[in-house]
Amino acid sequence: MTAPMPERRVTWAELFFDLVFVFAVTEVAALLHAEQTGLGLARAVVVFVPIYWTWVGATMRVNIIGAERAGTQMWLFVVAFCGLLMALAVPDAYHSRALLFAFAYWAARTVLLLTMPKHGRLHWHPYTVSVFGTGPLLVLGAALPPTPQLAVWALAAVIDLSTPTVLRSRLRGMQFAPAHLAERFGLFLLIALGESVVAVGAPAAAASSIDVDVLLAVAAAFGFTAGLWWVYFHFAADAMRYALSVAQVQLDIARHVLSYGHLMFIAAVISVGVGMREVVGHPADQLSWSVVALLFGGCAWYLATFSYTRWEMFRKISWTRLAGAGAVLVALPAAPFLPGWVALAVLALIVAALNVWEATRVRAAAAAAAAAG
User: Fold this and answer.
1) pTM of the prediction?
2) Number of Cβ atoms within 10 Å of the Cβ of 170
């Protein structure tokens, strides 16, 4: 039986590494903000996947080998620099900076491949697929006009994301430090929530005057963001750490719950943040359907994703969070006919009610268990 991985703590080097991805998330949000259409959403998602996959690749590697040594910290910072170049390229990633984005990703994944132990011959795993497959695909796509470029880059994103599933039999023996890995993915979600706070504060600070409508929108947006934080960090974060620690095949939890689940969580939070920026900028105006889709659709997707992660962890469905997602979708058709801050307040109340409902259920279950004992 393979010995469990020694537990690790998140290091200062990893937190410094994350700062680059704060900027990257901001740039992806700005890209979506500039084009709030289905095509704009597709472009933002396709450009975010390589950024996210760069972060995931480095995080997984550090979880296995640790980041205490100077040599590890140096290559981690090189990958961070590549991530910085990708973030700088995002605003014009489908035009003049496409090659910069593609080569920066290719370089980051090459660095990660070079950190792998040498066994005398090439082994297929996510790093080699990126270096010999998706990295060149991004470069090829960068030389094409925007529409075929999007198609080629989307293909590369699908290949990267599906690689751990395709290679599951080869990778299934991987061991992870559960608390460290769960914390790292929680920190990336916190980065996205931080971008939402910036999305709330920036337009309010730039306003010529902060009137009652702006204050109401800021209050609703902050309450909504805090509610989204509570949904994840009050119960789910510990459940993910526990599931990873007891899983017979840790790769399955790391793949479905952390890599795939958090991609959906973070994308949803970015979508919500873009919508909140619009509301705080024009709090008394009625919302366009595109902003409603970003806000309400993003919130419903965020809540529904917890049923996916809970199923992958425990083969159970999170009915409370599905109900919350359903309530958001029921409220969605009325949102374009309300002032922006009111629509945002509706979302904040739905998420707050969900959190109160879950807290009450957990407290009641604990009291029943104590009485039975």
Assistant:
1) 0.95
2) 13
